[in-house]
Structure formats: structure tokens, C-alpha cells
Amino acid sequence: MEKRELEKKDREEMETKESVSKNFIEQIIEKDLAEGVYDHVQTRFPPEPNGYLHIGHAKAILLNYGLAQKYNGKFNMRFDDTNPTKEKIEYVESIKEDIQWLGADWEDRLFFASDYFEQMYEYAVFLIKKGKAYVCDLTADQIREYRGTLTEPGKESPYRNRSVEENLKLFEEMREGKYADGEKVLRAKIDMASPNMNMRDPVIYRVAHMTHHNTGDKWCIYPMYDFAHPIEDAIEHITHSICTLEFEDHRPLYDWVVRECEFEMPPKQIEFAKLYLTNVVTGKRYIKKLVEDGIVDGWDDPRMVTISGLRRRGYTPESIKNFVELCGVSKANSSVDYAMLEYCIREDLKMKVPRLMAVLDPVKLVIDNYPENQIEYLDASNNLENPELGTRQIPFGRELYIERADFMEEPPRKYFRMFPGNEVRLMNAYFVKCTGCVKDENGNVVEVHGTYDPASKGGNSPDGRKVKGTIHWVAANTAVKAEVRLYENIVDEEKGKLNEDGTLNLNPNSLTVLKNCYMEPVLKEAKADDKFQFVRNGYFCVDHKDSKEDALVFNRIVSLKSSFKI
Question: Rounded to whole angstroms, how far apart are CA atoms 185 and 136?
């Protein structure tokens, strides 16, 4: 008896732990499945094609797709294209590409809200016939005035009690194009005294003589989002309509629409907190202005946290998935430090990519006692932490490039790199003792000189002497020349994101372009989006937009040092 009780207690503890580890959305889904509310799980990602997706959208995509995967359900991709004034095919294609890159597979379930325009129209007619919708002639300003305030109820439109027959006739005439934009709207008849402003007879259709990217000029009336969205979900048999917290006050209207349209097994709206990153630009209005003003190189500029910008910079789908998982799912809004995203890409790349040498701010080092015109090849590991990445041979010669910061004529205390009389280790190569430097007429160092110890090949001295400094290098005669772009946050982190007038407080140093960088010759074979660690300089990616076979461009993904602690 005692043993059975202990086993039962252990089982209960395990179930409690499992329940705690599940986020609140998973708990709702499992309860719905257990109680027979739904017999399947179907989610969707429903972007409006009015811009490119950003890191916040990645959370919604991966959350919806992940839930469908976890419960052996289905994931739909649907464009909420109910507003032709802002939508473009360019945005449709970019969104599809971003979602596929993230690994969310909609299989054969790619839909458009505009696919359902005829059905939405029929549901609007159905509501009119039920006495639940009416055509209103008030202007937009008058509708706002009639709506009331948070503390005062609204007042009814003088057109609220039109007959069903008149409403049907007027609504049909709206569809036929007999009225100008804004002349008439269709409103849901709910409750002008509701404490929820969204329930005070909201507009569900408006006249808009606009060409639609998908339906052309077939329609001159378009449904409002709050009416269209629940119908789309219901038609597609979505079970759990996951959206962000700003739609929480819209949920009663969502429920009203699916209830009054009499859908069987109606979808359930669940809200979660958005993903906010500190000091980054995610608002479409701001991103669009940066693009249109030419401040950035398009929506995919590597300084942006658009998904296409992150991809171009060198972020991986795995790093973004890990980031989203670390952020978790909650009902409370909070901000996440950008350093967490950088941590995730470092963690993802550190075992995956080769570690090569590249000199970004070069000065020539001449080894005076090394034979002229001789090139030898030295063995080096591609990644000391991951032997599976193999080894390579690096050419070494009399003339090398080193980083300008690795030589100082008069160094400060505890500077262990090159200065006259000091010996350093050239990574994977030899000990070299600095003998001096050559300057131009302006006093700038143009060459550093030194001598090497042939017995120290591989970076170890046979007599056991130690050197404190190790520097990287590339052989001048065989080096590949490339452009390197270094990025900082596009907004000034110290002054804050916005100026007092609401404009963005831009960082003038958000992009530094280095034209004369030298790299190991193996990088000549690098292809678009290939990623590397350049020792001591950070992680880099071949820019897939501007790179050419004979003119490589590398974007710094992230520096090596992290300020984030997990």
C-alpha cells in the first residue's frame, strides 16, 4: 500500500512539473483537446502584406508553427490582404521567403483573405437579414463623435433602424460602386453603451475604389480586419487564433462575429505578449521612412531587425529559434536586451564555422631574415573546438599584413603585442621579434620590421621561452582583398531611440565600411551567405546582395565578446 502511494505521489509530482513547464497557450490547447472542444489543432500566421517582417513576427511565426507541430496539427499561411491602399506583391513575396527561411512549412495551405471576399460579403448579408448589421451614412468624424468616450456611452446612429430590405438594397449598391469612398459604411449592430469601445457598432465594411493586388477591380467595398479575420479563421477551421495583446480588447468582437455568423466549432482567440527588443526599430512606419529616405539600403539592410535584414547580416534560422525559445511566451509585455539575440548567434556559430585569419586595418610586416620569394605552407586547425571541421594549409612569406593596432612604437603598460624589442607569436607560425618600423612623411607607420626564429615553427619555442602576445596575420603575396562592413545599432543607444519630436535618434556610426582588408586565400572560394569566424575580429558573413566573385563583401554578424549572461 505504501509503495503504491509513493508511486502515485511521484506521478502527481511529474504531472505538476510538466504542467509548469508548458506555457499558458499549451495548457489551454491541452485542456481543449481533453474536453473535446476541438478534435484537432490548427494554427495560422496572418500577416498584412504592407511591409517586410521583423524579429517580432518571427516569434509569432515560430510559436504558431511550433504549436501545430507539437500537437500533430496543421499550420496555415494566410495574407490578410483586406486593405489594398498599403499592400504590394513585393511584400507578399518577401514574407513568403522569410517564413520559408525560418523553416515554417505551410505545405499546400497558402491562403489570402481576398480568397474569401465573396463569402465575407455573404456573411455580411446574413447579418443584415438577422438584423445584426446596417448601412450607415455618417461620416468617419461623425461616427467617432457618436461613439462616446471611455466614461460616457455612445449614441445611436440615426440610420441604425433602417429596415432589413433597405439595408440589403443599399449594401448591394455599395458593392455595385454607386457610392463614393466614405459615403456609406456597413456597421455591426451591437451595443452603443458597451463599456468596450470596439463593440459600439463597429464598421465592418467600407467603400474603397482601389485596385487590389489579388482581385484587381472586382471589388470596391472591402471588409474591415475585425470582421474579416474571425471569418477567415473559421472558414479555415483554425482552432486557436494566436495573436498579440493589443487584440485582447477586440476578442469580444471576434467572438461576436463567429457566433452571429453561426459557425460550428468556432475558433478561440488567445493573446500573448509581443517581443520587444531594446533600442531597435521594429515599427513599420519608422522602417518604411528609413527605407524611403535612403538612410538604409532597403528593407534588408543588415542594420535592421527585419528578418531579411538579419538573414543578410548572417543570422541563422536556428539562432532566431533559440532566441524565441529563450524569450518564452507570456501574457505580460516586457523588453529583451538585444545582447540576447547576439548571444544566440554566437552560440549557434561557434562550433559550426571555420576560424580563419583576416586583417581588417592592415599594416605591412616585413620579416627581414626570412628568405625572399619563399612561400611555405603551415598547418592550422579550422576550429579547435570542433576537429570535424578539419585542417587547412596557410601560406607564409617574408611580407605579411597584421592589424595596425597590433603595433605601437611607444606602447602603454601591459601591451604585449608588437613594439621595438618585443617578441610575439604569429598565430600558427613563428616567434617574431620587432626591430622597428618605417614611417611616411606625415609620421604614419607604413611598415613594421622584425626577425623570426626558424626553430619556433608552429608557435612553440624549443628552448621553452614564452611570449605573452599572439597576433594574427595573412601573407601579403597570396592574400585576398575584400570589403568589410562593420555594424552598430542604427539608433543611438545612449541617447535613446526617439528624439523629443518623435523622430528616430540615429547613430551616425551605425555603418563603417573598410575597403582594404586582407584575408587568407581560402576565402577566395567563399559563396553568398557563407559564414566564418575571423579570429579576434568576430563572426562574418558573405553579403549575398553586393558580393561579386572577384569583389567579396563581408558583413560582421557579431563581435566575439558578449555582454549577455544566461
Answer: 5
Residue found under cell 572577384: 550
Asked if 512 contacts 486 with a C-beta cutoff of 8 angstroms, the reply is: yes
DSSP class of residue 370 equals S
Whether residue 359 contacts residue 346, with contact meaning beta carbons closer than 8 Å, is answered with no
3-class state of residue 46 by DSSP: coil
Q: What is the rounded distance in angstroms from the CA atom of residue 242 to the CA atom of residue 23?
A: 13
Residues 6+ apart with CB under 8 A from 562: 339, 342, 343, 346
Q: How far apart are CA 268 and CA 242, in angstroms?
A: 8
For residue 18, pLDDT over 60 is answered with: no
Q: In the structure grid, which three cell numbers stand for residue 88, read together?
A: 504590394
Kindly provide the b/e burial profile for residues 387-417, where b requires at least 16 CB atoms within 10 angstroms of the residue's own CB.
Answer: eebeebebbbbbebbbbeebbbeeeeeeeeb
Count the Cβ atoms, other than its own, within 10 Å of residue 64. Answer: 25
Amino acid 16: pLDDT = 44
DSSP H helix total and E strand total for the chain: 13, 27
Residue at 239: amino acid letter: T
What would the pLDDT profile of 100-140 be if each residue is shown by its tens digit? 999 999 999 999 999 999 999 999 999 999 999 999 999 99
Separation CA 559–CA 296 (nearest Å): 21
Give the residues across from 382 on adjacent strands. Answer: none
Count of CB atoms situated within 10 Å of the CB of 216: 9
pLDDT at 425: 95
* Residues 6+ away with beta carbon under 8 Å from 69: 75
State the pLDDT confidence band at 365, using cuts at 50, 70 and 90: very high
Whole-angstrom Cα distance, residue 139 to residue 183?
7
Q: CA 394 to CA 520: how far, in whole Å?
A: 7
- Which of 5-9, 301-305, 330-334, 387-391 has the lowest average pLDDT? 5-9
What is d(CA 500, CA 490) in angstroms, rounded to the nearest whole number? 18
pLDDT value at residue 22: 81
Distance CA 50, CA 541 (A): 29
Q: SS3 letters for 324-339?
A: HHHHCCCCCCCEECHH
Can you give the pTM of this predicted structure? Answer: 0.89
What span, in angstroms and rounded, lies between the C-alpha atoms of 402 and 404? 6
Q: Do the strands 480-487 and 511-519 form a parallel or antiparallel pair, or are they unpaired?
A: antiparallel
DSSP 518: E
Contact predicate 44/78, CB 8 Å:
yes
> Looking at residue 58, what is its pLDDT?
95
Beta 42-45 vs 74-79: how paired, if at all?
Answer: parallel
140-157: pLDDT as tens digits: 999 999 999 999 999 999
* Cα–Cα dist 201/205, whole Å: 12
Q: Which residues fall within 8 angstroms of residue 53, CB to CB, at 6 or more apart?
A: 47, 61, 94, 95, 98, 99, 306, 307, 308
Predicted confidence (pLDDT) at residue 174 exceeds the cutoff of 90: yes
User: Which residues, in sequence order, are CB contacts of 248 under 8 Å at separation 6+?
Assistant: 271
Cα maximum dimension of the chain? 103
Asked if 504 and 498 touch (Cβ cutoff 8 Å), the reply is yes
